[in-house]
Structures are given as structure tokens and as C-alpha cells.
Amino acid sequence: MLAYLPRRLLQAVPTLIGVLLVVFFFVRALPGDPARLYAGPEANASEVAQVRRDFGLDRALPVQFAYYLRNLSRGSLGVSFRNNQPATSVIAAHFLPTLWLSIAAIVAAALLGVLAGIGAAMQRDSPIDLGITVLAILGISTPSFFLGILFMYAFAVRLRLLPISGGPTPTGIVLPALTLAASALGTIARFSRSSLLEVLGEDYVRTARAKGLRRGRVIGRHALRNALIPVLTITGLQFGFLLSGAVIVETVFNYPGLGWLLIQSIDARDYPVIQGLMLVFSLEFLIINMAVDLLYAAIDPRIRYD
Predict the structure, then answer these.
(1) Residue 178 · residue 228 · CB < 8 Å
(2) Does the global pTM surpass 0.90?
(3) What tens digit of pLDDT does each residue of 156-177 get?
(4) Tens digit of each residue's pLDDT (9 = 90 or more) over 57-89
(5) d(CA 284, CA 280)
(6) In the chain, where does the domain assigned CATH 1.10.3720.10 lie?
(7) CA angle, 283 as apex, 306 and 112 as ends, to 5°?
(8) What's the count of helices (H) and strands (E) in the chain, helices before strands?
(9) CA angle 77, 83, 89 (to 5 degrees)
């Protein structure tokens, strides 16, 4: 297993380089001139040119990319155009709110999703199974912005139980977390159901039943442990999506996280912050995928990495 980590880290290098290339040139293909935007509508051509030089946008794109890589090698993401602060500091200020939101959402989605999937599998083809399946499909297919507006209307406007605007507080995080968890919950429930049904049909489960073991023991000790392997994979992926894909939810609830910051930075053509955010999102996925792979061996001792 120890030899597995360096291989995975080496495999991640081409992915990160590809992300850096694509994001760097993509953001510069966005319509609009940052120099004109920050110089102001009343600025003349010489003032705009000066701002462009200050931002380093007057250099050729390959030269800009070389400077960007040099800054990265020194641990710098550049200076934010909008705040005139290090992009690292700007991103760090919004990272923890997104992390807490994603943790709250994935914990709720994993617990409720696995329980719902187990309940649906144990009551296969029953009204309970049908109801859980319908709710799971609704959670997956309902757009998050629409679900967020529904939650705001129901719990904030009508019932006045929770604030409309989200924030990293016990009450402010509830509605954004529920909205963000809905799709992941439905996906985890569907995977848990199908995985458990598949495992329940295996020979070793039938053998355990033939030995006279109680149903709960068979499921808890034999079936569920193996059924959790694909569920762990999808949960890890969903956590990555939650961390990097909370853009819509954070915008709807005005939640000051990374997704909200990304929208603000795109609006302001803040290239260093946009590039830094995309790099952070890519690193999150790579780290989560490696962590999930390493957890396989803990769940199933048959899985080992040489």
C-alpha cells in the first residue's frame, strides 16, 4: 500500500498540468478586458495600458504562463486584481465556509442515503421501496437553485425558522447544506440499494443464511460490509462535487464560500483568483480519490496494493 501512494501522486502530475493549461488560457478567452474594467469607464488609452502593465497582461501569453508557473513553484497564486491582495489569502478566507458546508451536506447525505438504501433493499418492490426510489430520483433531478428557493420560501419566509441568507453559523448553514445534500443523498441511496441487493444474491450470503444466522447478523456482518465498497466510492466523489460544485447553492443563499467567490471573480475578471480556485478544486478531487482508494483496504481485506 505504501508503494501505491507515490504512483498515484505521479499520475496526478499530468492531470494538474493539464488543468493549469486549460484554465490559464480559458480565462483569458473570456470576453472583456480586465484592464479596462479596473481602470474605469473614464480612463484614457494610456491609463488602461498602464493598468495592463501593472497586471502583467501586456506580455505574450506563453510569457504570462511561464511567470504563472514560476509563482506557483514559489507557493504563490499571484495577486488578486480586485482586492490587490495575494490570491492565496483571498481563497483561504472563503475555504473554511465551503468546507463546513460540504462536510455538513455529505454527512447528512451519507447517513440518510445509506439508511434509505438499506431500507429500500430490505423492502424490495414494496411501497416503501417505491417511495424511497421516487424521493431519490426527485433529489437527483431537481435543480439545486429551484430546491433552494423552495426551502427558503418554506422554512425562512413562511415558517420563519431559519434565515434566508446562508452563513457558517449553526442556523445559517442548515438550508444551504440540505439543498446541497439533496442530489448526493439520492445518488447514495440508489447506489446503496443496488449494491446491497447485488451482495444479497451472492453465494456466501446464501451460505450464511443456510447456517441459520439471523437476518440482521447476515446483513450487518456479511452483506453490508461488502456492499459499502461502491458506496464509499460514490460518496467520495460526491464529496468532491460538493466541495467544488457548490457554486449555485452558495450563490442562491449568498453563502460566502468558494463557489460564491468564483462567481464574483468571474464577474470581475480576476484571473489569479479564478486560476487559484480551479487549482484548489482539482487538488480536492485528487486528494479525495486517493483517500477513497486507500480506504478500500480497510473495508475489504481482499483488496491490497503491492
Answers:
(1) no
(2) no
(3) 899 888 888 877 788 889 999 9
(4) 888 999 999 999 898 888 889 899 988 899 999
(5) 6
(6) 88-299
(7) 85
(8) 14, 0
(9) 45
Contacts of residue 38, defined as CB under 8 A and 6 or more positions apart, other chains included, come to 51, 55, 81, 82
CATH assignment, 88-299? 1.10.3720.10
* Nearest alpha carbon to residue 71 among 87, 60, 82: 87
Q: Helices 87-122 and 271-299 sit at what angle, rounded to 10 degrees?
A: 40
Report the Cα–Cα distance between both ends of the chain, in Å, rounded. Answer: 6
C-alpha distances (whole Å) from 182 to each of 16, 105, 134, 192 are: 30, 8, 13, 15
Q: Give pLDDT tens digits for 210-267.
A: 666 666 666 766 677 777 777 887 887 788 778 766 788 998 998 999 989 999 999 8
Q: Which three cell numbers stand for residue 240?
A: 468532491
Angle between helices 271-299 and 224-244 (to 10 degrees): 170
Length of the chain: 306
CB 281 within 8 A of CB 7: no
Distances (CA, A) of 274 to 127, 128, 132: 47, 45, 39
10 class by beta-carbon count within 10 Å (0-12 exposed, 13-18 middle, 19+ buried): exposed
